[in-house]
Each structure stands twice: as C-alpha cells, then as structure tokens.
C-alpha cells in the first residue's frame, strides 16, 4: 500500500505541474482528493492492515495529501493572481477623461414661493396649521356659512366622493378645525397651506388642483385696519417696499365685510400696461372679517371676539413674482423651465 501511495503522489504532482487553468485544477483536486478520489480509495484498504502497519500507512497517506494540497494551493494562488491582473487590465479607467456632469435638482418654484410666504407670516407671529385634503361637507361648506344648495356646492364645482365627503375646495376647513381645537381660547393666529381641488378646465390661469394659503386671526378688538396692515406688510416683503395695495368691496359667504386685494402692477409700477389691463393694479387675494356664523361654528362668541381671514393661491403669487404667463409650466416637469429657478 505504501508503494501505491508513493506512486499516486508522483502521478498527482506530475499532473498538477502540467495543469493550465483553474477549472482543470479543480478537476484534478476532485480526482485525487475527493470523497470518491484515488487517495480515499487506497486508504479504504487500511482495515486489512495489522495494528503496527496502520499508523505508518496513515502517516504516509497524510504526507501524500499534504503534498498534493500544497501544490494545488500554489497553483490556485497563481491562477487567482493572473485573473486579478487580467481583470485590472480590462477594467482600467483613464482618470484623465472628463467626468459626466451631474444634473442637480433645486427647490420647485411653487415650493420656493410657499416657503417664502410661510417665512413672512411666521416672522409676524403666525403658526402653521394643516388638515386633511379629503374633507367632510360640514367642515368644507356648512361651518363656513355655505348651507345646502348653495351654488358653491354644485357638483360641477367640486369633486364629491359621497354626498358628505369631497376633496376640499379650499383650506378654510383647517380654520374651523383649529378654532374647535382651541375651545374658544384666544388669540388664534394661523396660516393654512395645502393643496385644494376644483373642477376647472386646465388653461393658462386655471388648474383642477392648486396650492392655497389661508390666514386666520381671532381675538378681542380685531379690526379691518389690522387686516389691511397685515396684507400691506406681506406684499412689501414679497414684492418690494415700493408696493401698495387697495381693497375693493366683494362678497364671500364666510366673511363680512369682504374685499378683493389688488397690488401695484410690478411691470409698470402702477402706470398701466397690458399685464394689468392698463389699470395699474393686479388682483392677488381675497379677504374679510370672519362672519359671525363662522365664529359660532368654531366655538366663539361673536359678541366677544372678532377676526379676519384671507386666502391666496400660491400659483397666482408665483406667476406675478416671476412674471410667468402660464400656470401649466409649474406642472409640466420641463427641466428647461425649472432650472431657471435654481439660483433665484
């Protein structure tokens, strides 16, 4: 048996020195050292040896295995190093080549304007309140002095899910929710930013979904002059210190008295141009003193407190601020349009 083991060692080493690739090397490893390999086959005959011969033959078998394994490991290491060198050569990168430019994103102009509006009002002591976009009929209409069968509740104007649930048409429901949460406490001084939905056909100035920011102030002795001063301060911080505003009488079910707010046309500084239809003024938002019935729905006594509210469309403010002529640009995802605002 010893002679057979020595012959196997000689044969295996000779074959291993001739091997040319890793696959052939593995085949030889299995052939000589595998569970059904030649070395295992020879050592199975040790059961027929005497007790004195077994240790000797066992040691020879171990030496043969160790010799074969050493050559296999050396060969495998050589193949691994060769494969690594070949891969490095094939994957060589020319670091002198110019890199590919990475297009960096920026804050969307609508988000930029909304953040600027929020910062202005936070600077005036307001806090931000939010509410659900899927709203109940009560909070969206009834609590805002819009009873059943009011024209503003028409199915053609609103997205109804059921008879009592719809997509909110303004952020005013957040005002009612906040008033109820305050349990009659004052002061209330909030702005309510968020998306709203109306059944409008998309065109240059309308969209079925748009962003709105409303404001609400409630407390003792709140007056219309407080509202005008607040909006004048906002307009001057948003558009510049030279801007003026004017309030025109209007009607909203949830405020009384109500007004539309115009701002000096930035294109002509109030002299008159095509943008302002030669009036020198551009409408930007609606406002008014909170209607007594709305105060009652919110849990306040209109004989003890008063308040004012205002609402503006973020898209409208952005159109005027950046002199954009079509609201649809904001939603087209055209990088040629959006990149213009990266450094503004």
Radius of gyration: 41 Å
- Report how far apart the termini are: 89 Å
Q: Biggest sheet, open or closed, and with what strands and sense? A: 7 strands, mixed
The structure class reads: alpha+beta
Shape: elongated
- The poorly predicted ranges are none
Just name the CATH architecture of the largest domain.
2-Layer Sandwich
DSSP strand (E) fraction? 15-25%
Total DSSP E strands: 9
Order of neighbouring strands in the sheet with most strands:
1-4-5-9-8-7-6
Determine the mean pLDDT: 87
Order of helices and strands: HHHHHEEHEHEEHEEEHEHH
Say which CATH homologous superfamily of the largest domain is assigned.
Bira Bifunctional Protein, Domain 2
CATH class of the largest domain: Alpha Beta
Main location: cytoplasm
GO molecular function: ATP binding; catalytic activity, acting on a protein; magnesium ion binding; phenylalanine-tRNA ligase activity; transferase activity; tRNA binding
Domain GGDEF: 315-344
Keywords: Aminoacyl-tRNA synthetase, ATP-binding, Cytoplasm, Ligase, Magnesium, Metal-binding, Nucleotide-binding, Protein biosynthesis
Q: Key features?
A:
single chain, BirA Bifunctional Protein, domain 2, seven-stranded mixed beta sheet, two-stranded antiparallel sheet, alpha+beta, 9 strands, 344 residues, 2 domains, 11 helices
Map the helices and strands.
Blueprint: H1 2-18, H2 22-33, H3 38-43, H4 53-90, H5 109-123, E1 127-128, E2 134-136, H6 137-140, E3 165-167, H7 172-182, E4 188-197, E5 209-219, H8 224-239, E6 245-252, E7 255-264, E8 281-290, H9 292-297, E9 306-313, H10 314-322, H11 335-338
Parallel strand pairs: 1-4
Antiparallel strand pairs: 2-3, 4-5, 5-9, 6-7, 7-8, 8-9
Helix pairs in contact: 1-4, 2-4, 5-10
